[in-house]
Inverse folding.
């Protein structure tokens, strides 16, 4: 049975960003339904639906709303449209093609939580999308969906778009709040959590675009429909993104629970690899969740697996829990990028480490120094002067920088260490191959060039020895 | 470098750059009612300043500090945190090339290298005629159309090296098709 | 007083403090950079992470949580159990110390912080001997950020204490972080230097050698310095200070923790305003006028000479001006002396310099307009001795009217304080004894001139604006030719033996209650900084 798209129902419909088209397709009916209920009932409904946050962490939205203090005077709703996790773009699709669905979600969430002001924190790189959403917002204001006494319900909500300016860490909810307050987007220490003390020291709800976009459908189609989709613990539809050298890169909606293999090879999804290349690896949910191997050998068509031979990890189910069984952080943003077989894994490591080094906010020592150190190591490995020891070192550093549960204020270093560590662990053999193919004195030369004070040491077993800044590293058998 | 001391206590007049116009100040003030604190209008104010001046000059930062009632250092702090704000003048059009993994796998590196060669500039530099500046960004969220790049507000998708000449020579390569909202100004009105 | 368990030992602690503070109070050496009890908690250095017992999410069985918690951010709760003495905690400390040294230039031999640097200490105690980084270091520049301060960015550990200080305590916010991630630096806005009146504190606060005082730079190695507990004479606040000195003299003044008065901070006036004690203009000879010329007299002869002179004068026309720069002990002894020789002598509360108005900073730190340390003490002593008394303005007026024939005038102010009008009026006094730090307009009129010692050369106690009597120690010997005032007045009043301020306070405590209530601020815990 082909799955009927809901979150992407208007994608591809001409003029889908207009209020008229959205309303013609049943838009804003969810809001009308919500207004027919008490706010608490909407919260209960969302809690029963077990709508888990689509931003990456998968925290149930209804539970999050439940943390708000009962006697609060003012509540802010922050919409996290700071979609910065490479290679994620599902929020962009929603905003670009169906902005009113997001706005309706905001209204429902705002009504349920009693918010009076909603801020849409939109990443600065969304330029065209900003204009689309602003136009939709203006239209919605004109039609009386925002402002005072919305649709005669007595509920007031103001909504503003707040543009970011290029910082990944502002996608973290407290980083977002800091940025909204006009400061550098450094995540706050918790507790207090935003539900108690968030934006402008007031109770605040932060929800992802896709989470909010689900709300109208839960209300219009009902709980039974929602619960019929997805797996045991992960309910509802999800917008999956696939990019890299596949035949049909793009965003595809499916109930939670498809496998990575389906996402890459399914005719409704990625449509297989371009030029019939093999998969070397996949980041299945944004970079931060880590990498899955695809290169060991594909599973035979009959599905029979010889455990002695091992098999690739593409059968990982993309719901909130299964990726953990493969040493990954979780579902993340369910945006996969496929690494084809002919790509040098050292380039991938360099790209990934550069990203985190560039985006670390610099508050916590582990993250600030660790991400950058690993980046510098990755740069050296990529330039053909790696050591086996570097791989151990990276593994050790990632161990310290923070694996869930983390050691720092926010989850960025946790998100950094998963891809880095899984890359180094799962593709160790390839790194080793590259290192073995280096000229024997490459490391010595590089280190000497960087640090002339490095001691001249004998070469053992044809490999360069560890030169350590000005002093000597115990060598042992690590090299 | 500890043998060299940089004097930060004084600043040469010419380094301050242009300040904000009265219109820009007025525009920044229109953002105040949106937030419970004036300081929260920091990012909009900086966007407005950058749209007007082309970058966030020291004098503009001071002006914003005065408007938002914060020390100028607080504005500098924010400006330097976010990658989209420039603290030195940029060209009329800023080319932002995505360097994230998806785009790199699809050939982003080659596009960037070709751009550098064609424009004769490196990242964060401006062509001598002041037309283009070049910069890379971590992800432009158009991974399905990699490699991609933005010229001002316009996103160019699936850019191939052989397309670059055509894109660069198109005078409208930064015009977007949808109607613009005038809450922020068009970057660098030409 | 909740009790918590740290490393298996039960510790009683104040309610509402963090676990880190409780552990420091109880004598644990917990590495920390960003935490400072006087500033907001940011929990960003991640050095004080600890293990904590938490109930298991399913079984509710208490056990060590897999996560490490920042001790500075975790408030103490009754019965909680934490540990620092574990492999996990040590492993984290080791790694974090390694991170700090990645880009550090290791220029300790030319760094003024060496010897009191917590990067050195913690690396030795908690870190590694070698760095495993072979990559090029980031080299950040040295910056001139204010009239008293230099910023060595490459030594910085980004604890942001200085930023928080400028924001919260000084309220001026000159210092900020710039850039992001590993390119983070601390900087000022170009052309807006760090110029608040408390800026020197950022140097004290800096746990490493990043913020360096221009005043102390390249002057001394800190391990060659001794310290004395003193009280700042800069204003009537009575901020407690450390005087760092050695045989060559005083080299630096730092704030000394005093929860009731100045907490961890002192004003720049107190920190840098002591240079006058090394001035070559200082008086350094006791001398008597003989016609138009001076004759030096030995200190041992002076008491006799003064006694004779005052005894010869009319006791109703005798006065002693007790300067609020004097310690309580000195004021007491001088009052005692003058009443011995002239029981009806007038006690005058000396000149009180006022500059501007009190300046209060956001969190309550005050710089007083009253630029003398001991008005309160002098007033109490005058009140205690009773009899005739007046303040300085009245004294000047009365002297101008010819009311006084003999007077003992004590100064000791760092700045010029005698105006021409003062001098004209006071010159009418025939037997004028001036006990002062610097030459003044009075010099041509005085009969006996006695040099006074500076605050660093004396011991005693000051009563601050809130009435707290705080003792201060002597740091250095008086200038050659000068005698410590306490000892001199001791002899002048005919007291036996050597002057020891503490002993003296005990001996007079029965007479004046003030001397019994000595406020000695508690020391900071050994490993706090």
């Amino acid at each position: 049975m082909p799955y009927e798209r809901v979150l992407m129902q208007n994608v591809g419909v001409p003029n889908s960003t207009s209020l008229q088209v959205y309303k013609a397709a049943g838009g804003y009916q969810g809001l009308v339904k919500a207004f027919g209920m008490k706010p608490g009932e909407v919260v209960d409904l969302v809690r029963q639906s077990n709508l888990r946050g689509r931003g990456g962490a998968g925290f149930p939205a209804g539970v999050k709303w439940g943390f708000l203090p009962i006697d609060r005077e003012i509540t802010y709703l922050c919409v996290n449209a700071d979609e910065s996790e490479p290679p994620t773009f599902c929020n962009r699709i929603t905003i670009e093609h169906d902005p009113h669905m997001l706005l309706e979600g905001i209204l429902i969430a705002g009504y349920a939580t009693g918010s009076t002001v909603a801020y849409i924190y939109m990443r600065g790189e969304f330029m065209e999308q900003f204009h689309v959403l602003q136009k939709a917002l203006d239209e919605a204001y004109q039609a009386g969906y925002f402002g005072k006494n919305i649709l005669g319900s007595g509920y007031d909500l103001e909504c503003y778009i707040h543009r970011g300016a290029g910082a990944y860490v502002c996608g973290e909810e407290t980083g977002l709040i800091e940025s909204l307050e006009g400061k550098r987007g450094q995540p706050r220490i918790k507790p207090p959590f935003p539900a108690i003390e968030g934006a402008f020291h007031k109770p605040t709800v932060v929800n992802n675009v896709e989470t909010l976009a689900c709300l109208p459908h839960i209300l219009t189609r009902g709980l039974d429909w929602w619960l019929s989709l997805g797996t045991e613990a992960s309910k509802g539809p999800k917008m999956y993104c696939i990019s890299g050298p596949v035949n049909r890169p793009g965003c595809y909606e499916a109930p939670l629970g498809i496998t990575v293999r389906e996402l890459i090879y399914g005719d409704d999804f990625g449509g297989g690899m371009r030029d019939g290349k093999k998969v070397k690896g996949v980041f299945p949910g944004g970079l931060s969740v880590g990498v899955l191997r695809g290169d060991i050998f594909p599973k035979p068509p009959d599905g029979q697996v010889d455990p002695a031979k091992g098999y690739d990890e593409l059968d990982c189910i993309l719901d909130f829990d299964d990726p953990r069984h493969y040493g990954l952080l979780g579902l993340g943003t369910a945006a996969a990028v496929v690494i084809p077989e002919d790509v040098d894994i050292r380039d991938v490591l360099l790209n990934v480490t550069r990203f985190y080094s560039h985006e670390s906010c610099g508050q916590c020592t582990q993250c600030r120094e660790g991400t950058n150190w690993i980046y510098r190591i990755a740069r050296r490995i990529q330039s053909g002067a790696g050591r086996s020891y570097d791989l151990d070192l990276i593994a050790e550093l990632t161990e310290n920088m923070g694996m869930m549960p983390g050691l720092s204020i926010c989850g960025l270093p946790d998100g950094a260490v998963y891809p880095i560590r899984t890359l180094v662990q799962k593709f160790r053999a390839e790194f080793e191959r590259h290192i073995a193919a280096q000229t024997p004195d490459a490391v010595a030369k590089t280190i000497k060039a960087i640090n002339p004070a490095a001691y001249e040491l004998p070469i053992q077993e044809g490999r360069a020895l560890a030169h350590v800044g000005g002093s000597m590293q115990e060598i042992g058998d690590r090299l | 470098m500890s043998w060299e001391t940089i004097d930060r206590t004084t600043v040469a007049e010419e380094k301050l750059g242009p300040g904000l116009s009265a219109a820009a100040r007025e525009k920044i003030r229109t953002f105040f009612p949106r937030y419970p604190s004036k300081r929260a209008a920091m990012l909009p104010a900086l966007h407005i300043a950058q749209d007007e001046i082309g970058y966030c000059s020291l004098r503009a930062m001071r002006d914003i500090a005065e408007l938002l009632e914060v020390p100028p250092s607080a504005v500098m702090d924010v400006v330097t945190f976010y990658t989209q704000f420039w603290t030195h003048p940029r060209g009329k059009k800023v080319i932002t090339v995505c360097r994230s993994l998806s785009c790199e796998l699809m050939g982003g590196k080659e596009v960037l290298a070709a751009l550098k060669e064609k424009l004769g500039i490196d990242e964060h530099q401006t062509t001598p005629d002041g037309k283009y500046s070049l910069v890379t960004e971590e992800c432009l969220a158009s991974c399905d159309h990699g490699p991609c790049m933005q010229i001002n507000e316009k996103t160019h998708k699936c850019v191939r090296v052989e397309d670059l000449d055509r894109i660069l020579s198109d005078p409208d390569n930064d015009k977007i098709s949808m109607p613009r909202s005038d809450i922020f100004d068009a970057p660098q009105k030409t | 007083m909740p009790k918590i368990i740290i490393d298996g030992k039960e510790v009683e602690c104040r309610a509402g403090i963090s676990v880190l503070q409780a552990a420091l109070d109880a004598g644990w050496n917990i590495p920390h950079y960003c935490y400072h009890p006087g500033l907001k908690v940011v929990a960003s250095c991640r050095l004080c992470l600890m293990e904590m017992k938490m109930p298991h999410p399913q079984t509710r069985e208490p056990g060590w949580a897999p996560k490490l918690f920042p001790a500075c951010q975790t408030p103490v709760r009754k019965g909680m159990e934490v540990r620092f003495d574990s492999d996990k905690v040590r492993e984290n400390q080791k790694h974090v110390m390694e991170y700090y040294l990645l880009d550090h230039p290791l220029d300790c031999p030319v760094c003024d912080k060496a010897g009191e640097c917590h990067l050195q200490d913690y690396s030795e105690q908690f870190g590694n001997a070698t760095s495993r980084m072979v990559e090029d270091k980031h080299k950040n520049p040295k910056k001139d950020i204010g009239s008293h301060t230099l910023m060595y960015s490459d030594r910085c550990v980004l604890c942001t204490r200085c930023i928080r200080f400028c924001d919260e305590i000084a309220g001026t916010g000159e210092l900020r972080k710039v850039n992001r991630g590993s390119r983070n630096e601390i900087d000022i806005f170009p052309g807006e230097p760090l110029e608040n009146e408390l800026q020197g504190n950022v140097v004290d606060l800096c746990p490493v050698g990043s913020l360096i005082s221009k005043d102390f730079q390249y002057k001394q190695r800190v391990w060659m310095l001794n310290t004395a507990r003193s009280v700042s004479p800069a204003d009537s606040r009575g901020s407690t200070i450390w005087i760092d000195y050695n045989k060559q003299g005083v080299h630096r003044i730092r704030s000394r923790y005093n929860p009731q008065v100045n907490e961890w901070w002192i004003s720049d006036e107190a920190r840098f305003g002591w240079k006058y004690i090394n001035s070559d203009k200082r008086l350094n000879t006791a001398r008597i006028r003989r016609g138009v010329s001076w004759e030096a007299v030995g200190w041992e002869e002076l008491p006799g000479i003064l006694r004779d002179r005052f005894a010869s004068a009319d006791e109703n026309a005798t006065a002693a001006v007790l300067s609020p720069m004097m310690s309580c002990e000195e004021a007491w002894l001088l009052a005692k002396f003058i009443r011995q020789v002239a029981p009806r002598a007038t006690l005058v509360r000396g000149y009180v310099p006022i500059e501007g108005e009190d300046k209060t900073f956001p969190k309550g730190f005050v710089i007083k307009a009253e630029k003398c340390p001991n008005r309160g003490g002098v007033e109490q002593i005058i009140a205690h001795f009773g009899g005739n008394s007046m303040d300085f303005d009245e004294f000047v007026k009365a002297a101008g009217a010819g009311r006084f024939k003999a007077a003992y005038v004590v100064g000791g102010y760092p700045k010029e304080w005698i105006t021409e009008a003062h001098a004209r009026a006071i010159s009418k006094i025939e037997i004028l004894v001036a006990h002062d730090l610097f030459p003044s307009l009075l010099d041509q009129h005085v009969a006996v001139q006695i040099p006074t010692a500076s605050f660093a050369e004396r011991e005693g106690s000051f009563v601050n604006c809130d009435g707290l009597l705080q003792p201060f120690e002597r740091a250095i010997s008086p200038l050659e030719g000068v005698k410590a005032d306490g000892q001199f007045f001791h002899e002048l009043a005919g007291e036996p033996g050597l002057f020891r301020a503490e002993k003296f306070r005990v001996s007079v405590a029965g007479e004046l209650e003030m001397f019994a209530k000595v406020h000695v601020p508690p020391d900071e815990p050994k490993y706090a900084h």
